[in-house]
Design brief:
This protein is an alpha+beta fold. The chain is globular, with a radius of gyration of 19 Å. Strand 4 (about 65-75), helix 3 and strand 5 form a beta-alpha-beta unit. It has three helices and five strands; from the N terminus they run ββααββαβ.
Length: about 100
């Protein structure tokens, strides 16, 4: 299990687990987003904007290997469902993680 610590800038107090090991955290490989994934996410965002008239100001679209990840908020549960159904119907979308909130 990984523990994180937070330092207070005002009084330099440590909040959290004192056993946090910075060295083990830095040894973890960093996954980079490929240019193909960036292009795919941009294509999905454009699809949402132009085909469903979705305002992308409150939605973040990311992709990795054909899987789409949505975060943010929409104005209705109907819109959330429409977005999900529309993206799942696209043959090049292998999977969808829909974390959109209705506000």
């Amino acid at each position: 299990m990984t523990y994180f610590t937070k330092m207070s800038e005002e009084n330099n107090e440590d909040y959290g687990n004192e056993d946090f090991d910075d060295a083990s955290f830095n040894d973890q490989p960093v996954e980079k987003v490929s240019p193909q994934d960036l292009k795919f996410a941009a294509e999905i965002a454009a699809h949402l904007e132009f085909n469903l008239n979705v305002d992308l100001k409150s939605i973040k679209v990311s992709a990795r290997g054909g899987f789409v990840h949505l975060q943010g908020s929409v104005t209705s549960s109907e819109l959330k469902k429409e977005i999900e159904e529309n993206l799942k119907a696209l043959p090049w979308v292998l999977g969808l993680e829909n974390y959109l909130r209705v506000v």
